[in-house]
Design brief:
The protein is α+β, with helices and mostly antiparallel strands. It is built from 6 helices and 7 strands. The chain has one domain: Gcn5-related N-acetyltransferase (GNAT) (Aminopeptidase, 3-Layer(aba) Sandwich). Helix content is 30%, strand content 31%. The chain is globular and about 35 Å long. It comes from Leptospira idonii. InterPro entries: Acyl_CoA_acyltransferase (IPR016181), GNAT_dom (IPR000182). Keywords: Antibiotic resistance, Transferase.
Amino acid sequence: MIVLRAADLGDLSLLQSWDEEPHVLESDPNDDWGWETELGRSVDWREQWIAEKDGRPIGFMQIIDPYLEDSHYWGEVSRDVRAIDIWIGNVSDLGKGYGTEMMRLALDRCFLQDHVTSVLIDPLASNVRAHRFYERLGFKFQERRTFGLDDCYVFRLDRADWKRKA
């Protein structure tokens, strides 16, 4: 069973080491997460989680309200949307179903809020494995879009589709 706990400054070295893993760099090559600052900053529009399996950290997730998020990364979005970032930290934990369970936990959190109608995710256009992963969860391709230096596919999961899959 995987549980989520709030990420904090005690996770700094862990997250920095995961950021250097080749599979993480491959999926997120151009972002500087600013862990030293962001882990100590509490904002209403973001949740940052460490996923643990049997008490051992295995991954990171962030759920944001892109309408309120201060960098406006997603551009203009409605108030009823959430966006998720997710990765597995160690390559040895890939392919074990942990990402699926983490996403289900995150999506449950998002859709617990009655006003949330959909969730966005933006894997790199080149990350075909991620595209298939999100499609299996019910996400649908929306558009190809450039975020900073990253060529991404935007996928969307609507509440009705999540309910059908859940």
